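Something for you to look into today, if you have time. Could you write out one complete protein record for me, on any chain you like? The space below this message is yours for that.
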Amino acid sequence: MTVLTSRPDALSGERRAAMLEQLALVATEVDKALAGGGEKYAARHLSRGKLLPRQRIELLIDRDAPFLELMPVAAYGSSFPVGASLVCGIGKVEGVDCMVLANDPTVRGGASNPWSARKTGRAMDIARENRLPVVFLVESGGADLPTQAEIFIPGGAMFRSLTQLSAAGIATIALVFGNSTAGGAYVPGMSDYVVMIRDRAKVFLGGPPLVKMATGEESDDESLGGAQMHASISGLADQLAEDELDCLRLGRDVVKRLNLPPRPVPASLAPRWDEEDLLAIASTDLRVPFDPRDVLARVVDDSDFDEFKPLYGTSLVTGWARLHGFPIGILANARGVLFSEEAEKAAQFIQLANSSNTPLVFLQNTTGYMVGKEYEQAGIIKDGAKMINAVSNSTVPHLTVVIGASYGAGNYGMCGRAFNPRFLFSWPHAKSAVMGPAQLAGVLSIVGRQSAESRGLPYDEEQDAAMRQLVEAQIEAESLALANSGRVYDDGIIDPRDTRTVLGLCLAVINGTEFRGVRGGFGVFRM
């Protein structure tokens, strides 16, 4: 065994306090998503005898089963409410892992905005890659009309994804709790199974006012799109529920009758070191390095880590472990910068993981690939390209956690969002951008200075200082974990102490799919 040791000097009370402060900032935004449209609209919704979206999810999934909520702060930093009027995540229904999406009707009637579309699209991708049945808890007024130009095309992509899931044999289920109008009507229209609630569900492309304006026809909600009509005349509803609880029961029955086997979870041993320590390891000052082995000792089974090439390319830690019983390969940045040795080591390790069909976990804390004349002459570009080539063409599942910095092409080589990991999460202090704020502002300053000199003009130092300050503030704000999570560049911000649990849930989901590592299909490695 290769049990990782724990170093007491790696823990810091100051780091712990700073991390808790970052978690509190995230919790404030998550609370906004939990509140939906606020007390007024939640109370109005409840007064109508309806359940809130998270209450519906709680009753849908198995008793005491975990629910891995995804992208909870989508739309943060935008003009739309945090959460994007949609709750989504993975939970077990009748023992089957399902992707669950619930409209929040307390937020603008559950209307979809551009961030709802992005969040839904990401959920569809996860469902397809991991072959998860999709359960929609529908109550939506369709597209948010003032932003129709931004929602129209992504909304169409969602419908395309729905039909492709069905074609791939991945079940799609719509449980309709209230109005489902315009574009929202196509969710039940394109789902494999549809349950509607009597006297509550209303599904139509155009409601009575629109029909009156378009055709002059007078109609009422029930005859135009009521649940009874769809169950007995149009055939859109497969089953008619009496109330919300009955609808959820029928939805669970649909999943049970899919006859999908449970995804087994192997036995495992807990880490030897306390996960609580994870708050005190990483500094919120990303210039302060930390050893990722101290993280791994509190994440992997029995703290047992078989390191690969420990004396070579030491800025990148690679090796084998198990997490909740699942075998994994790990790539974790140790000192931020990636040199040629680290890039070559990573490329070889990724090939080995593909040879043994082993999923890869990337722990990102990188400032990118090394720059400078010495390194350029030594071939940092072609060596970095080998690593990126390997990541791009690897066919085993990838899971990424940003535990610190994620800058430049280092984000790409360590399997950032553009490289399509199955799941990607961030710690609350993480930052991601083209480069650090000071570096980016400095580059712009140098370019501006050189431009002025080439034209024989004086350079305004006062204006330069103001520009640098403005740019640094902008890049700092845009690189924060909350900002990136708000753009749906990750699947959520997690408490460091939950890293093992979250990765374990994801690995259990992945375990239900077939995957095979690529053999020799990595393209040309420039030597």
User: Anything to note?
Assistant: The first strand starts at residue 67 and ends at 69. Residues 13-35 form the longest helix (23 residues).
